[in-house]
Write a structure and sequence with these properties.
Elements: E1 5-7, E2 16-17, E3 28-33, E4 41-46, E5 53-55
């Protein structure tokens, strides 16, 4: 069981799910597989307040051109 946080590191449907247990107190951490090259495993670490962090199903920001998830903190990104 994981904490449920997800992250989209690039503006495409690639998602990384946090592999840590629910209730952890530190940064989220997950593995991006086969992205750098076939067979690669890149560990990615992020925090709750990162604008690319989300939970549940991906819902895009309603701001035209924004590539971040709906409800993200701070400014928009295109």
């Amino acid at each position: 069981m994981s904490c449920g946080a997800k992250f989209r590191p690039v503006p495409e449907p690639t998602e990384i799910e946090c592999g840590l247990e629910p209730g952890h107190a530190d940064a989220h951490s997950g593995v991006l597989r086969n992205y750098a090259f076939p067979g690669s495993a890149t560990t990615v670490t992020w925090y709750d307040d990162d604008r690319r962090n989300f939970r549940g199903e991906w819902m895009e920001c309603p701001e035209r051109g924004c590539i971040l998830p709906a409800g993200h903190p701070r400014g928009h990104a295109s």
